[in-house]
Specification:
Chain B: Pfam families: BPD_transp_1. Chain B: One of its GO terms (cellular component) is plasma membrane. The complex is a heterodimer of chains A (287) and B (317). Chain A is mostly helical and 287 residues long. Chain A folds into 2 domains: 1-59, no CATH class; 62-281, Orthogonal Bundle (MetI-like fold). Chain A has helices at residues 7-35, 39-42, 61-67, 72-106, 112-123, 128-141, 147-170, 176-183, 188-217, 220-224, 234-244, 251-271, 273-281, and strands at residues 48-49, 54-55. Chain A has a two-stranded antiparallel sheet. Chain B is mostly helical. In chain B, α1 crosses α13, α4 crosses α7 and α10 (235-250) packs antiparallel against α13 (283-307). The chains are: A mainly alpha (287), B mainly alpha (317). Chains A and B meet through α1, α4, α5, α6 and α7 of A and α1, α3, α4, α5 and α6 of B.
């Protein structure tokens, strides 16, 4: 905005940004801290620093418990389910949405607005409203508690989002360059491969990340349309850790599992921050 | 890029468009061939379930008693709307929606304004703020749950420290409705404010800085510049952000499910649909509640689009 920003404003804003960052970081630090606490330290303030926050003697026992120990039968299949289901739902969605967004941004045909409006309407559909009919239908046709039984409803999360995000990205591509390359003697395949694909790839990739996040985050379908390790994903498995033992709450194990599923996603965000921001806001402002 | 005016409502070419060139006709057919599959998938995965839900909602149908299934027409709706539990869930849901929305707007706007002008540490702030967005909601819920619990948590210890011992170390946040809702709202606000601030930041970027500068020269205070120049100029982005978040918050499920399981009158509408369907296997009643929730979302969207004239697809095609 203002290029000649005064020193006072500059340092004032830097000072304001500190509490914002602390507020953002504390819950993450907290879950890491809890995952490093031994069972004895969980509810014993004398074994922790900073007001029961950080353990005095951090231990990796909880990680051992969920990766190789007793809770691994619950966690490892869930992690695998999450990865498979979310990747498939993302792949199908991005594939379909790439064609759709290409048509919307490049071709002239009636119904473009209808498609975009539908995508928007579907993304604000109350997901729980799909659970009841799907629960009934899936039980009848044998899709209850299967991976396909989750991939299909996940498409309702990933497809509209992908269409919306990708069509915003595609509208910024200078498509004339394709013709320019052809004029210069490139075949249409060369023009696509050498000119269009490199321009479109970042948008497709970013869309895939955002779609994957959305599927990865789902809890409503995962908790209601599964009943065993067969298809249960991580968020649902975390909720069932609690029910597994009634007397000792597996607090540390849940936190360790939470950290494991959080770290890769946070790294993705840190790496592709700029693109993700562009993708997320493309739906709201003129693309 | 196409600049043709697109009325868009009808999918079939009308008779007045009969004299299209071959090229235009080819483009139309290719357009639908490419866009059609995605469109059909969207319809199949949402329209079909909701139509099926409407059908199921007309029956008194319990999975444990399949032979007892009988047609009751709107009976389930009458029962649902006459049930105090429904209205309690309704009120709980909207308390959460309104409280979180207000705080997300204020915090989101504040963060957006800082992000807009900050010089140091610009990159770091933008990255850090994105972290809560990338956290699974269930993980956020567990983090806040364990933080607030009196045995494993740190809230009581910190509050006790900052009030010089006045705060009860054994205060049970999940012992009552309002304190439970407070923690649920905190987790929700923490998780979604970054998204809000990014939407608002995109809106802020569209405000003409010359206008703001002019107001400053004319002696407008900071508050006057905010309310008279900045906010009116980003009204479109603001309304879209509010609508997005409202529709998202109405379906709140993960946070209360993990933290309270609906205890102490913290059951939300989405959770009510879930318990009715999965735990009580009342498919008919569950479907009726699902349809009611769907209608609530439709009404909210309609109010925003018609009354506040929010243009959602603005700028596209």
């Amino acid at each position: 905005m203002e290029s000649n920003i005064s020193d006072k404003t500059k340092w004032g804003l830097a000072a304001v940004s500190i509490p914002i960052m602390i507020w953002t970081i504390i819950p993450i630090l907290w879950i890491v801290a809890t995952s490093l606490k031994s069972d004895a330290a969980l509810a014993d303030p004398s074994k922790n620093m900073f007001g029961n926050f950080w353990p005095k003697s951090p231990s990796l026992d909880n990680y051992r418990l969920i990766l190789t120990g007793g809770a691994s039968e619950l966690f490892n299949p869930a992690l695998l389910n999450s990865i498979i289901i979310c990747l498939v739902a993302t792949f199908i969605a991005v594939l379909l949405a790439t064609f759709c967004a290409y048509a919307i941004s490049r071709l002239d045909f009636p119904g473009k607005r209808l498609i975009l409006t539908t995508a928007l309407a579907v993304s604000f559909f109350p997901v729980i409203a799909m659970v009841t009919p799907l629960f009934n239908l899936w039980r009848q046709i044998g899709l209850f508690d299967t991976k396909i039984g989750l991939i299909i409803p996940y498409l309702s999360l990933t497809v509209p989002l992908s269409i919306w995000t990708l069509s915003a990205f595609f509208q910024q591509i200078p498509w004339e360059m394709e013709q320019a390359a052809q004029v210069d003697g490139a075949t249409s395949w060369q023009a696509f491969r050498k000119v269009i694909a490199p321009l479109a790839a970042p948008g497709v990739f970013t869309t895939a990340i955002i779609a994957f996040f959305t599927a990865w985050n789902d809890f409503v379908f995962a908790v209601n349309l599964t009943s065993s390790n067969n298809a249960r994903t991580v968020p649902a498995a975390l909720a069932f850790f609690t029910g597994a033992s009634q007397f000792t709450q597996p607090t540390g194990a849940i936190c360790a599992a939470a950290v494991i599923v959080t770290i890769p996603v946070v790294i993705l965000v840190l790496l592709f921050q700029r693109r993700i921001v562009a993708g997320l806001t493309s739906g709201a402002v003129k693309g | 890029m196409s600049t043709a005016i697109d009325t868009g409502r009808s999918t079939a070419a009308g008779p007045k468009k009969a004299k299209l060139s071959d090229r235009a006709r080819g483009e139309r057919s290719l357009g639908w061939k490419l866009a059609g599959p995605a469109f059909l998938v969207m319809l199949f995965v949402t329209l079909y379930p909701i139509v099926y839900a409407i059908y199921l909602s007309l029956f008194n149908y319990r999975l444990t008693d399949p032979t007892g299934r009988r047609f009751v027409f709107l009976g389930n709706y009458v029962t649902a709307l006459g049930d105090p539990l429904f209205w309690q869930a309704f009120v709980t849901t909207f308390i959460i929606v309104i409280v979180t929305l207000i705080f997300e707007l204020i915090l989101g706007m504040g963060i957006a304004m800082v992000m807009n002008k900050i010089v140091i540490p610009r990159r770091t702030l933008r990255t850090v703020v994105l972290i809560p967005y990338s956290i699974i909601t269930v993980v956020s819920a567990f983090s806040w749950l364990y933080a607030a619990k009196f045995d494993t948590g740190f809230f009581n210890h910190w509050l006790n420290f900052f009030t010089f011992g006045a705060w009860d170390l054994n205060y049970d946040w999940f012992g009552g409705r309002w304190s439970s809702l407070l923690i649920i709202c905190l987790s929700e606000i923490w998780k979604t404010t970054p998204f809000m601030s990014l939407l608002l930041l995109a809106g802020l970027a569209q405000v003409d800085s010359a206008q703001e500068e002019a107001a400053k020269v004319d002696g407008a205070t900071w508050w006057q510049r905010l309310t008279k120049v900045i906010l009116p100029n980003m009204k479109a982005a603001l309304m879209v952000a509010v609508l997005f978040r409202t529709l998202d918050a109405v379906r709140i499920y993960d946070n209360p499910y993990v933290m309270t399981g609906g205890a102490n009158k913290t059951l939300t509408l989405s959770m009510l649909v879930g318990t009715e369907t999965i735990d009580r296997v009342e498919i008919g009643m569950g479907s009726a509640l699902a349809v009611i929730l769907f209608l609530i979302v439709l009404i909210i969207a309609f109010i925003f689009v018609k009354l506040f004239k929010v243009d959602l697809t603005g700028g596209r095609n």
